Task: inverse folding
């Protein structure tokens, strides 16, 4: 199994957050996510400061960390932090959609973009095919929660965050931007 596919498949564990959020109210969701954030940040501190798990993680998970993550927070920690803020800041169903966009949209964008991406943009870092896969998957997720117009707007926001805000970790930008856009649209 190729490293990127394995990494993105591992990323899908993040779907447990919106699935779990179905069964609790906002207050309990924020409380639960705050505990998860504290644990995650503590583990990252130990990993980065003391090289905890430096040999163990690659043996168990394979090469799922990117080179920059050896000296920075992992994508999983960014995902958890952004999920906490998404649950804290947005309506329950908007938060569930935005977190799912992050998990599903980023997965399909990377897999399709790496395998089939021919039309490149953003200095060759992104592909039209990957962005199209992100949009389609986010739109389908959105249709499970919202009407078609709102689902399309949310999918556009998530795709923009994934494809154009490359200086910001997409695990932060996708849920926060799509949650903010969905909130603004729902107020209209």
Result:
């Amino acid at each position: 199994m190729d490293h990127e596919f394995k990494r993105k498949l591992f990323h899908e564990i993040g779907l447990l957050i919106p699935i779990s959020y179905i069964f609790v109210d906002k207050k309990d969701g924020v409380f639960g996510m705050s505990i998860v954030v504290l644990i995650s940040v503590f583990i990252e501190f130990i990993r980065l400061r003391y090289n905890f798990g430096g040999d163990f993680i690659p043996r168990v998970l394979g090469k799922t960390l990117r080179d920059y993550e050896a000296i920075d927070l992992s994508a999983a920690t960014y995902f958890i932090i952004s999920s906490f803020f998404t649950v804290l800041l947005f309506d329950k169903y908007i938060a569930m959609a935005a977190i799912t966009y992050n998990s599903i949209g980023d997965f399909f964008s990377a897999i399709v973009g790496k395998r089939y991406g021919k039309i490149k943009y953003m200095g060759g870092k992104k592909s039209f095919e990957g962005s199209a896969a992100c949009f389609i998957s986010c739109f389908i997720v959105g249709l499970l929660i919202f009407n078609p117009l709102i689902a399309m707007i949310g999918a556009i926001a998530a795709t923009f965050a994934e494809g154009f805000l490359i200086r910001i970790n997409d695990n932060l930008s996708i849920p926060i931007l799509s949650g903010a856009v969905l909130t603004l649209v729902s107020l209209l």
